[in-house]
User: Fold this.
Amino acid sequence: MSKKCFDDYTKATGQIVDDVKKEELLQKVRSTKEKLRIEGKDFETNVGDKNALQDKLDKDYRLKTKNEVDNAIRRLSTETQLKTRFEELDAIAEKISQSDKKLTKQRAYQRAFIGMIYNTNDTTDIPLESIENSLFKNSLGEFLAKSTKQIGEDPINFIQNQKNFDDMLTEFFTFFRNPNNVNSVTKNINAYKMAKEFFDAKYKLFERRKQSGDNNILLDQNLKVRWSQAKIGKINKDEFVNEIAESLDQNVHGDLASRTEIANKIYDNYTQKSTPDWREQGDTNLKGIFDSNEATPLDAMPQDRVPSLTFKDGATFNAVSRKFSDVDSRVLLMNYFNETARELSLVQFFGADYRNGVRRFIDELEKNSKYENAFRTKGRLGEVDAVKRYLDRKVNPIIAETSKLASGFTTLRNFEAAAKLGSATITALMDSPVMIIAGKRLFGLPTSELLSSIFKFGKNGAPADTAEYARYMLEGVESYLGALQERFNVSDSLTNFGKAEGVSVRTAHAVFKFSGLNWWTEGRKAMAAGIYGKELGRLIKERVPFENLNPKFRTQLEKFGIRGKRKGGEAEWTKLLREQPLDEKGRLDPYAIREDTFEFAYGKSSVRQKVTSAMNDATDTMVMTPSQFDVDSAALFNDPLGVGGQVIKSMTQFKAHPISLFRKVYMRMYKEEGLKSTISTAAALSATLTFMGALVLQLKQYLAGKTPYKNNNEFYVQAIKQGGSLGIVSDLFMLAGGENILRAVFGGETKYQSSDRTASNILGPLFADFIKVSSVVTDVPVQGLKFLYDEDYNFQKLMRSSSKTILDLVPAQSLWYTKMLYRKYVHEYFAQLVDPKGYRKREKNLRKFARKTKDQNKYNNFIYESLPNILPNQR
Assistant:
């Protein structure tokens, strides 16, 4: 470059050209010259009315300008959303302060912050947790409903056939290359139709992101392989690189050299990094898509693209996934909605630049003096920190996904659930009183509908029409996830982290399925959703003014931002009355609620999201389902990825339900209607749950082959314990010696409880079993050696106790309909074999116990006694 060139540059830009700048400019010139040479051009080659150099510089300038504009729009989006969030925080805090004058400003802001992110009793508009849930259920539910209508069968059943699934993905990849495609390339018409619905669902979510200021390209939204670090680490690099390079679509990723470079990077990431993120693996250049005349010009594309991969066809994608992933490809299909809902909820809440938005949001809360250091503290129990960690996990989900500690504990808890919850279906009968009383007293639903739900059942737990309605709205999302769990080895989060956890998930799910627990829960949820949808549909059809709604029902709608009046636009209730989004039976049809672009402006939520969130909340309260706040509460707000969090979660396993009951019913009733209504509700639930507890208690006795309790004080104590009418308060009361207090109240005799038993109750089932198993492992060899030198040593008693410990850990051993058989032919038989003398002595003591507590001469009932002794030497 001549001196004149540098002088012209200085004149045009105002920048001084020193030696460093001069070298930078020379490098750019050399680079541009080389790129033109590859294209068969030089600086003077004519391109239209310009030379090649001018044309290249113009394109680079346009590209740089467009990229700067894209970034500015993303930043503006986040600025706008953050302004909305801070205004919302102030409004919620003010409302909380007005309802409780004794509350400090600091505490009011903390509760407001938690209620913005989690669905709590302080929530006054749709929180982030509910936004994500509604996006997931609405998008996946609509896709499944439309696909079912198009192909005439359940989409999950359809893709269970490998050929159908291969064809469906091939059709889907074709749509990515040509969205206007109208012909099936595989000649599998149903595969084409399902692929079209999946592509349309993805395109709708893609457009939603663009409307929020996130200018990405559609191809970035392609399916991603969830690579397994262990599997990639076991294979030769050349073999991996060659296979992936051959599998990628050359029309998207370019020639073999380009595809080889992509495969090399993936292999290096997974063999050299400790926690590579499967979301970040892929190509951002996408060379091949610019080769045709119809393709989008390179300089029209956003530059900060998400890495993505496109494979030649569906069969190739599935083959790669089977070989290099622990997750079934069908799960990846459904996981798209899960993953997109996570990201899109963050975009909706914090703007397109959500990573920076979350950071700035937390920084402002911690540093701004107006919040009086509310967010520099952990909160009373650490709940503020728990919400911050939740946001961090949402922004960086790979942290939780690669936690071996969490995965290990989860695996153990799954096996505990499989061993302990075989009879949970019987306990779940107590859902009915909660559903009736919560539905009436919290949501103002018709008593006749709630009462009649007790007697309505069907193949899927509820009458066919009601079950189909719930599945249509994906309120029965558990049904679809259950099908995935059963067929494709997937956990509730649509992910699993290895073979051990996968086995534990399948085991637990099998127990829940074969015990009837899934059938019961899905059926009750379907009934709850059906009752709520029918009542909401009736109110909309009759065009009932918002102010004339049942106050309890109206309060539930207002909690999620559905109001009768609104400043600057149409109110949510008015929109529902105008659109009449009902199905042919007059029930609410959420997919008939139109979602307009303006509804998502400035970080707002659509009416559809608000309505489905209100319905989900009601359903999850009537059929008690823990929210994220309840899950965190069960861990005492400890970090779930740390040792402390996992230990506490294991100690409080099975406690999320009673925590939810107390918070969702009693605390909510107290906040909305005061002490009098709360006491009335407590009385109603205590009476009905204690009655149901008594029935469940006696039924469990019969199913275990034992004689029932007689009508005495011990029976009442156990019925109250089984009922657990006050939720976690009842559990804590019993843990603190409540049984003996109740025995004293009812005039009975108190019972001694050993310190070991008390410690086991506090430690929870996992650690209690761990201690028992540890004792077996350490005591049996030692006591066995003692027995060799002392013939009178009671080694058989230890063996009987040890065999019981091991047999109690067998998955499905507690299934309610086989429990009696398992007890007679496994438990009792082993006890008789290893310790005949001790077994006879124990039987004698049990008969004494039966006479004393059950007014019976026998401990076992007539059904158990009538079972034949079919095993050798069985008595």
Q: What stands out?
A: Residues 5 and 11 are 10 Å apart (CA to CA).
